[in-house]
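Bench log, entry 3. Co-assembly request; chain sequences pasted below exactly as received.
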Amino acid sequence: MIRYQVRVARGEQGISRGHQTFEVELEDRMTVLDALFRIQREHDPEFTFRCACRVGMCGTCAASINGIPRLACRTRASVLGGKRITVDPLPNLPVIRDIAVSMQPFFDQWKRVTPGFRPRAPESTELATIPEGSRYMRLSKGKRDCITCGACFGACGVKAASAEYLGPAAINRAMLRLIDPRDGAVEERVSVLDQERAGVWRCHTQFNCTEVCPKGITLTESITWLQRSLLRKSSLRNKA
Amino acid sequence: MIRLVGNSAQLLQRITGIGLLVYLFLHVRTIHKLSEGPRAFDEAVAVFRSPLFKLGEIALLAAVILHAFNGIRITIAGLGLAQGRQKQVFVWGVAGAGALLFVAGAAPMFWFGIVRAD
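Structure output for the full assembly:
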């Protein structure tokens, strides 16, 4: 067992009450999420955080751990280096209580890019096939695994300064739909992505989103790909 | 406070950018002294021969290198290259290679401009 000092943010509804430090004992393979559970069970039952799957699939437990947005369930305490761990709520999102944040701003932006599939030919009964070596398969490789954890949204420096900005996850989602040969909502998405203040042009290529994504999605690549594509919109309209 | 390389890179780009802009104004102001005659220009240039300004020139070199190298990195990223290795590109390509170039340029500037200056 290793003894850690876990410093967690306290507060609710946007009113910060600073940080509180707890002494927590963890085994070698235990995660930051285990530390949060220990705090709740052994020290303060009112301490609030969110989690669901505990295996890095749902993205619910994303938080700022030692200043970097990560999934608490996938971050072993021993790999952080040092015996002091600081856990803050995910930046750029309103705090509900302690570490739990509201994902509303994230999903508000997500909805703006028409994230759902809109078939080009809804009446078609023909089975759509996407070959292995097709453009869609090539461009979407490694980009389809987003779990909407909000880590990229929290790490984005532009998002910190602009409430209007779509954020990396929504842009990546829009890119996936735009390159999908079966999808038809091109104009709706392009009109949002091409906006000067909210769209892809706001990205400063900091690569923070790519660096923190727990699924290893190269989100900045999606953004820069769209920037280049929007210079020649016909390439997005012509999906053939 | 988010502790990521991307934030440091953008902060460096902003600081060096503002520094270069200040230098540009200073440069234009000095050159403008030519319009007031050779004596006014010589007097303006004489100020830059002090050790303090020599150190400023070394800082200017650092700013130019960092700004240029980071700018090239951003351009390369914009073209869709080396997207998954930006941290390494920044650490080795911008900070590492920039530091080597800086030492190669700053050492003679310091030696001949400050230590062995007449």
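Chain A touches chain B through 25 residues (CB under 8 Å). DSSP finds ten helices and seven strands in chain A.
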